[in-house]
Amino acid sequence: MSTATTPLVSVLIPAFNHERFVQRCLDSVLEDPYPAKELMIIDDGSTDRTAARIADWVAIHCMDIQIEYVRRENRGIAATMNELAARANGEFLRPGSSDDYLLPGGLEAQVRYLLAHPDKGAVIGDSIVVDQNDHKTHDSGMRLLHGNKRLYQSDDGIRRAIISHWAIGGPVALMRRTALDTVERWSEGLRIEDWDLFLRLAASDALGFIDVSVCAYRIHGGNLSRTRHLGTRIGNLAESRQVALRRARLFDEPYKTLLRAQSHYIDAKIAFLQHQPWPLAWHLWVYLWLTMRCSRRLPFAHRGAEAA
User: Fold this and answer.
1) Which of 5, 9, 193, 278 is the most buried (most CB within 10 A)?
2) May I ask the CATH architecture of the domain 3-225?
3) Is residue 50 classed as helix, strand or coil in its secondary structure?
4) What tens digit of pLDDT does each residue of 264-291 get?
5) Inter-axis angle of helices 193-203 and 230-247, nearest 10
6) Distance from chain centroid for Cα 185
7) Where do the H-state alpha helices sit in the chain?
């Protein structure tokens, strides 16, 4: 890829209370050899030393890469991502996270895919999984969360994977700015903002996939998706159910019904956490019935991929 024709990538880092990890995140942006990039950072009201660590890093590296850094009060992840996207100048946007980090070569691999596939608005890759000490614990975030990656080899498979097996380990997407504008960016007020966004992209067949590890996904005690706090888990699940019902209208059959089935599966999880056996049994029965109805209308190859 020649430097003269290399499109600008804006790396977007929302930072919140990750003083231990944020320097590794920022270092990784410099370590990726992709030549045309800028770094946009917002500290979303951190109460630890995250903001100070970012400021120190920016003071050292401000001549190495174009950087914009904003520190402000807490507004939440979706509002922060929308502000970062609005401030960015790149043709492509690379959302990140202040506790994860990029892997060298990932930006170029994803840019090459989008340049070769003008019909796609975003491309997702895989990740490696690391612990709080940067020790690798798994070679594939997708395999860890889902078991296999075969569903991601087709548009129909991607739709099914995003609906039923949300298995995106870490910030692994590169997006066209135009595609993000088309789906109205991140929905503010949601904690499950990533699933909501990817459902909207999948509904329009805008998602592609490359089997390349593009980031390191860090699992530690502060991951929102891995919390053990009962009230938070139930709240996240209830929000996921609302997202599933709201976005079902964007899909044609059988994927609309599959998303309705997923809402019942989420309700079953809530009933389990609340020790309600009869609602648990009811929602599982409806989930299985709707899933069987869908399976008869799905391509055979995708049913086989799921079973693999």
Assistant:
1) 9
2) Alpha-Beta Complex (3.90)
3) helix
4) 999 999 999 999 999 999 999 999 999 9
5) 20
6) 13
7) 22-31, 50-61, 77-87, 106-116, 141-145, 155-164, 177-182, 193-203, 230-247, 255-273, 277-295, 300-307
Question: Which pLDDT band holds residue 301 (cuts at 50, 70, 90)?
Answer: very low
Q: Is the peptide bond before 254 cis (omega within 30 degrees of 0)?
A: yes
Strands 122-130 and 92-95, by their bridges, are: unpaired
Distance in angstroms (rounded) separating the CA atoms of residues 237 and 67: 36
Look up residue 154 and give its two tokens: 């087709």
Both tokens of 49, joined, read 């030393």
Spatial separation of the C-alpha atoms in residues 39 and 182, rounded to whole Å: 23
Residue 10: closest CA among 28, 29, 25, 33? 29
Q: Is 197:168 a contact under the CB 8 Å cutoff?
A: no
Residue type, position 123, single letter? V
Cα–Cα distance, 171 to 156 (Å, whole number): 22
pTM metric for this prediction = 0.88
Q: Where are the domains of the chain?
A: 3-225, 228-307
